[in-house]
UniProtKB/TrEMBL annotation, chain A:
Coiled-coil parts of chain: none
Domain of life: Bacteria
Gene3D superfamilies: Hotdog Thioesterase
Ranges for domain MaoC-like: 19-108
Protein known as: Beta-hydroxyacyl-ACP dehydratase
Sequence similarity: Belongs to the enoyl-CoA hydratase/isomerase family.
SUPFAM superfamilies: Thioesterase/thiol ester dehydrase-isomerase
Region (Disordered): 136-157
């Protein structure tokens, strides 16, 4: 369905459109430096190998930032992140692709909880929960008013 | 390796660090500022308008970045206590020299804006018992950092690292190729493996009552008779049951792969890999045909002096 990202469905079980993140060497290094993390395993392949890793790998702060971005991309700038809790699994190595997906797990008034998962070709890179505040929801059971003036029917957008 | 007693003593010493401060009155190296926010957003590909222009806030997930020591801070983040250094040194001395972050939990109390000067205090919340993980054996250390602007709490940041002793030869690219384990051949099953080496699947048959059996055993389960001969299996069978092996990864195997219990047409069951179909297409009842694969012929497999060997595998039949 088009326009889903502009009109997030806020029901438990609703799925967010996935976000595909190409895990480039540039992203890994840029994310590490932007988060002021100069651990060599995040930018120096030779030293990473000496420590038993096949290559450099993404740091947890970058994963955290990407998870936050995934949620605010979807809910827009008015949404406020309250809590981001993540656990790492397999590493994000250069050349891989991570697909972030999210499912609404709880809706309590204007507070929404999303279960987030990031998969790459090795398996699950990250699992987590994001809690955010969105624009106040209508009372339970009330008809849902359109967020923007309703487009003419059959607009096909 | 530590003895059990040494391990117990270390565990007790590590527990004493719980509740102690890891950083006291640390001050962020830079106030919250627009250039660092912009660099972060560029790296993350984050175009959220809340992070730019007048009234911009910092991306909440940057919380930890404002507390980081950076390239100049080899001694650790600002405000780091001796206690935390001692804890890390104790783990280093126990061989747990590698570190990896496993968990990050952040709660945001108020947004950070350019100009905010961040201060923080970190406490060692817990040190786990000794754990064996995919990476190696070690200890999880959990810290909690309260980040403030003035006296106001901006957020809390709970961080868990694993300090571990890397498993020897962990790097797959730096270690010689692992050889597939050879079958264990003993005087009870030698006949079976001799058959396999010649491309024949031999089933034991009790000469007392005629019952077929597999795996090979000295006596008959049905009548107890110790005399036997063999019949050659036709090779056809069906998948009676199976598992898909994902974890843990064994050297020389490439998970995920399917391991099936195949019921041969003759009625006995035999364990083997299913080939010719992806692991997730294996199904109970799937018809299969035995074939023989030679292992130990790769260059990397040479040198153990035992030479190549043959294993039976089961190929999914066409159209199944």
């Amino acid at each position: 369905m088009t326009g889903a990202s502009q009109d997030p469905v806020l029901e438990v079980g609703a799925e967010l459109p996935p976000l595909t993140v190409p895990v480039t060497r540039t992203l890994i290094v840029a994310g590490a430096i932007a988060s002021r993390d100069y651990q060599d395993v995040h930018h120096d392949p030779e030293l990473a190998r000496a420590k038993g890793s096949p290559d450099v790998f993404m740091n947890i702060l970058t994963t955290n930032g990407l998870v936050g971005r995934y949620i605010t991309d979807h809910f827009g700038p008015a949404a406020v992140l309250r809590r981001v809790a993540i656990r790492l699994g397999v590493p994000n190595y250069p050349g891989d692709t991570m697909v972030l997906s999210g499912t609404v797990t709880e809706v309590d008034g204007d507070t929404v909880r999303i279960g987030v998962r990031g998969e790459n070709r090795l398996g699950t890179h990250v699992t987590g929960t994001v809690t955010l505040t969105v624009a106040p929801a209508p009372p339970a059971g009330a008809p849902v008013p359109p967020a923007t003036p309703a487009p003419p029917s059959g607009s096909g957008s | 390796m530590l003895s059990e007693r040494q391990e117990g003593e270390l565990g007790a010493r590590l527990k004493e660090f719980e509740g102690r401060a890891a950083a006291v009155a640390g001050v962020g190296k830079d106030p919250v500022n627009a250039p660092m926010i912009r660099h972060w957003c560029e790296a993350m590909g984050d175009t959220c308008p809340a992070y730019t222009g007048p009234g911009a806030i910092a991306p909440p997930t940057m919380l930890q970045a404002w507390t980081m020591a950076g390239l100049a801070g080899q001694a650790g983040p600002p405000g780091r206590t001796e206690a935390f250094g001692e804890l890390l040194a104790l783990l280093d001395a126990a061989g747990c020299t590698s570190v990896v972050a496993t968990d990050c939990e952040q709660e945001y109390a108020r947004p950070l804006r350019p100009g905010d000067v961040v201060t923080f205090d970190t406490v060692i919340e817990s040190v786990s018992d000794r754990k064996t993980t995919r990476l190696g054996t070690g200890y999880f250390v959990t810290t909690r950092t309260d980040v403030r602007v003035g006296t106001e709490l901006a957020g809390t940041h709970r961080f868990r690292i694993l300090k571990y002793a890397p498993t020897a030869g962990k790097s797959r690219e730096n270690t010689p190729k692992h050889r597939r384990p050879r079958p264990v051949v003993n005087r009870d099953n030698a006949g079976f493996w001799e058959g396999v080496a010649r491309g024949r699947l031999l089933i034991q048959r009790c000469t007392g009552c005629g019952t077929l059996r597999h795996p090979w055993l000295p006596g008959c389960n049905a009548c107890g008779c110790l005399e036997w001969d063999t019949v050659e299996a036709g090779g056809g069978g069906t998948v009676f049951s199976y598992v898909v092996m994902h974890h843990p990864p064994f050297p020389a195997f490439d998970p995920p792969y399917a391991v099936a219990l195949v019921e041969l047409a003759e009625g006995v069951r035999m364990v083997g890999n299913v080939v010719g179909v992806p692991y997730d297409k294996v199904r109970i009842g799937m018809p299969v045909e035995a074939e023989f694969r030679r292992y130990g012929t790769d260059a990397g497999d040479e040198g153990d002096g035992d030479g190549p060997f043959v294993l039976p595998v089961f190929r999914a039949r066409e159209g199944s």
